[in-house]
Amino acid sequence: MPKTLVELRSRPLLDIVSHGRGGPKGSIRLSSEQIAAIDRTVRRVPEAMVKVLPKDSNNLRSVARHLNYIGRYGKLELETDDGERVQGKDAGQRLLEDWDLDLEKDRRETNLASVTGRSPKLVHKIMLSMPPGTPAKGVLEAARNFAREEFALKHRYALVLHTDEPHPHVHLVVKAVSEQGERLNIRKATLREWRREFARHLREQGIAANATERAIRAETRTHKTDGIYRATLRGDSTHTHSRIESVAAELLKGRLRIEPGKSKLIETRNQVAGGWRATADILTAQGHPELAAQVLRFLAQIPSPHTERELIAKDLQQRLRSHPSRDPHRTR
Prior knowledge:
It is built from 12 helices and 6 strands. The protein has 332 residues and is of the alpha+beta class. Strand 5 and strand 6 form a beta hairpin.
């Protein structure tokens, strides 16, 4: 039996690699939802992003500090699940009290900390964002609808829109334990589902948005923590600077070290390419020759896979070609 392509809650909507591993020709059919997702992907529609911020979610003081921070210390209103607008320098503390997080902390620490050795999360700190240029009002409305569908009448939450960075984004803070006493656990499959739902809500606001896996889009840049990601956007990431300096030093010696993950990267890319070719065949068989041709053009434009260090080296070499006076090898 061929692998199914449709994910309900645990697998990607576009399981492109499985297309290439399918059964006899004609045994796999694409749903209208999958065809629409393929169309968005090959047109490179902007990707919706959903991130969970991992730190300081199990400490009352840290949670209050985060709520105050996303409210810009009283400058912005926090919208809650019950329609309230909370604003002020003490907004974080007021929400802690409203959500009974102090009682939750005492109750849960007693039951769970003894078992796991650590305090459980009191909240989940989530960020929903889109690339620069996306209408901020639409991002906010999509985030509102997403939060309402996922958490209303179950988990208390508060959200706020930030537009002080190029990419409009919404901070969403969700109480980890529902009003029915059930704990929210976020897994990779959960994040995939949330990205897909957030993208759907964005499209309902007239915003082109997609939600596919990085490998399917032939992206090889590694995932960064939120702190590194935001610092890189500002241009002051010490991690990024350190990586660049390390690569530059190797280039000066005339040899760039090959990273251990390069062979796996090539293997994955070959599997994805085979999956896209099989997808084009399936589309043709189902009467979508134009989209099949788009898929093949998309595949032809996919660059060869590069590790992060190779991408940094390529960027440095391009800069030197554009500004040869900065070449450290050049004699003054």
